[in-house]
Amino acid sequence: MGASVTAPRLVPLLQQFDFACARLADRMTGPVMDSGDGSETEVGPMTDKEYFWEPVPDCWSVRRRTGGPGPRATLLAGTGDWGRDAAPYPHPWPPPFTTIAWRLTHLSEMLSLRADHTAGGHTLTRDDYPISGDAAGAAAAFDAGATAWRKSLLSIDDAALDTVGFCTYPHGSDPDEPFIDIVWWVNQEVLHHGAEIALVRDLFRAALTPPPVDTRAAP
Length: 219
Fold this sequence. Notes:
Elements: H1 11-29, E1 32-34, E2 40-42, H2 48-52, E3 62-64, E4 75-77, E5 82-86, H3 100-119, H4 135-154, H5 158-161, H6 179-208
Antiparallel strand pairs: 1-2, 3-5, 4-5
Helix pairs in contact: 1-4, 1-6, 3-4, 3-6
């Protein structure tokens, strides 16, 4: 039976998570986003071209499975027609620059799998997670992952927050950490990957926008 009252220590972390998810969702889909100073700025929905944009050579991204992995990747993670560039440990060094597609599917997969390994069947792996091959599908998958993770948090009691290994997610330190530390970690994952995705969107827009013409007379 799920907890009827949210653990007090969880409340600020849930508030932070909700804020980070809403800000990222607005940044990807619009029609407006928080500009950072509390005012609203118009923003269009992310396009497939942005989703797959590679600003530098040899990016890691999401690719059709039939084409195989990209540079320095050895496999395509996930299931379905698309996969995300990956490699077993030790990972390539220096780390490849990753596209919005890579960052967003990584984030959504993590949320979905951690939800399962917290309050689900404790069975899902990366091989079970479908990778989105378009921007709209990826935004929807992020929303689904965030909703699943939040629901899993509402099912736990205060004692679970101190339980080492309460989350059995197999791709992190979860089996060795108190659950409250994992909740904090997930928040920072959303915050920092959300900021990265926003930055790449800004870079994409800037790359396509001609510089302003200087109409001042030459000295």
